[in-house]
């Protein structure tokens, strides 16, 4: 992995890199809707979002929580919907995996009683050479656990970064997409967002940190803001679909 050979952008380029990345206009995949989120947005809240995942969610290399992708998601949703009563909980954990995420659902996700869960997955599972095939069923299982409690669910896949590209990333990408289709939940493809931003002229280092794996400040910004826009667009498109009545666990 030629991490040292990447062209890294300096701090002055961070804002422009994020704006260039946002021009690729990433959307959520598939026909799945976000009925509970749509209802909350229409009513100006309250809307509770929980982001669960690994260090990409926690925001490794960012000392300010507002600079993580969940922090950027929060600020962009507030910009788009100034009157929205909104809470975003960051339940990321360094080095976590898909099975590790599922084991934390009760404590770190469902205890917050979320309307929407964003589940970022796949990076550590592939990096540590676990079988993507074996994990497909676990992803679907996790989605069902979250949906059974009444929450909307969005999956977020891997990042487009040197460490990922040197792994068996394509099998994991297929597994994530297959699970999303199987369980009829939207997929926010961070991988495609970053890849298309490179096609638009950004260097790998503009959105990727020095370690060749995690996002730079601009990468976190683009991910969070693009996801916020995708949520608002998807919710508006499905606003006519009433949310299902689900009895929450006591």
Quick structural gist:
This protein has about 250 residues and is α/β, with parallel strands linked by helices. It is built from twelve helices and five strands. It has a five-stranded parallel sheet, sandwiched between helices.
Integer count of domains: 1
Mean pLDDT: 88
Low-pLDDT residue spans: 1-12
Distance between the termini: 49 Å
Order of helices and strands: HHEHHEHEHHEHHEHHH
Structural class: alpha/beta
Walk me through the structure.
By secondary structure, this protein is of the alpha/beta class. The protein has a single domain, classed as SGNH hydrolase (Rossmann fold). It is built from twelve helices and five strands. A five-stranded parallel sheet has the order 2-1-3-4-5, sandwiched between helices. The radius of gyration is 17 Å and the shape is globular. 49% of the residues are buried. Residues 1-12 have low confidence and may be disordered.
Q: What key phrases describe this protein's structure?
A:
Rossmann fold; disordered N terminus; 48% helix; alpha/beta; 5 strands; 5-stranded parallel β-sheet
């Amino acid at each position: 992995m030629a991490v040292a050979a990447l062209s890294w952008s300096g701090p002055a380029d961070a804002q422009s890199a994020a704006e260039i990345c946002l021009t690729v206009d990433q959307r959520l995949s598939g026909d799945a809707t976000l009925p509970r989120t749509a209802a909350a947005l229409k009513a100006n809240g309250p809307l509770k979002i929980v982001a669960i995942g690994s260090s990409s969610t926690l925001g490794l290399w960012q000392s300010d929580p507002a600079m993580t992708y969940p922090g950027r998601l929060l600020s962009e949703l507030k910009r788009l919907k100034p009157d929205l009563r909104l809470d975003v909980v960051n339940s990321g954990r360094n080095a976590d995996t898909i099975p590790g995420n599922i084991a934390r659902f009760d404590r770190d996700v469902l205890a917050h009683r979320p309307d929407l869960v964003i589940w970022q997955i796949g990076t550590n599972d592939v990096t540590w050479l676990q079988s993507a095939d074996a994990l497909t069923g676990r992803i679907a299982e996790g989605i069902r656990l979250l949906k059974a409690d009444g929450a909307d669910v969005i999956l977020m896949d891997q990042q487009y970064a040197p460490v990922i590209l040197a792994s068996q990333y394509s099998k994991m990408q297929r597994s994530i997409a297959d699970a999303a289709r199987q369980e009829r939940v939207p997929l926010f493809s961070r991988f495609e967002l970053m890849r298309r931003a490179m096609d638009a002229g950004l260097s790998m280092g503009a959105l990727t940190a020095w370690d060749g794996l995690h996002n730079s400040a601009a990468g976190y910004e683009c991910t969070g803001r693009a996801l916020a826009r995708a949520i608002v667009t998807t919710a508006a498109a499905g606003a006519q679909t009433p949310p299902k009545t689900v009895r929450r666990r006591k």
